[in-house]
Specification:
Blueprint: E1 2-4, H1 5-18, H2 21-33, E2 36-38, H3 42-54, H4 59-70, E3 75-77, E4 89-91, H5 93-103
Helix pairs in contact: 1-2, 3-4
């Protein structure tokens, strides 16, 4: 699975709110090991700003979408309807998990 580096920060933020720091860092490192990470650079941020203007996406969601679009992806795993119309097909997490399970 692929993700923007911003997704890692977001995951860590939420884990820190729910548990201890060492556990949050360990969970975040495990997540990083399972992902192909894509950097957030000026090009991604500019594309994200364009998405904010042209779609319902805001902030981090625009960064995630911009990262996926610039990497050439056609789908994004989400339950958020705001991604409809951004150029990516939203895929529910259960469907994505089913696909991942069928690969192994």
């Amino acid at each position: 699975m692929h993700a923007s580096a911003e997704a890692v920060q977001e995951f860590l933020f939420h884990r820190l709110r729910r548990g201890d720091r060492e556990g949050a860092v360990a969970q975040t490192r495990a997540m990083m090991d399972a992902l192909v990470l894509h950097p957030v650079d000026a090009t991604v941020l500019e594309r994200a700003l364009q998405l904010v203007i042209t779609t319902p996406l805001r902030g981090r969601d625009a960064v995630h979408a911009a990262t996926a679009l610039l990497a050439g992806f056609e789908e994004i795993v989400t339950t958020d309807d705001d991604f409809v119309g951004c150029g990516l097909r939203p895929v529910p997490p259960a469907e994505a998990a089913g696909r991942a399970g069928s690969l192994g």
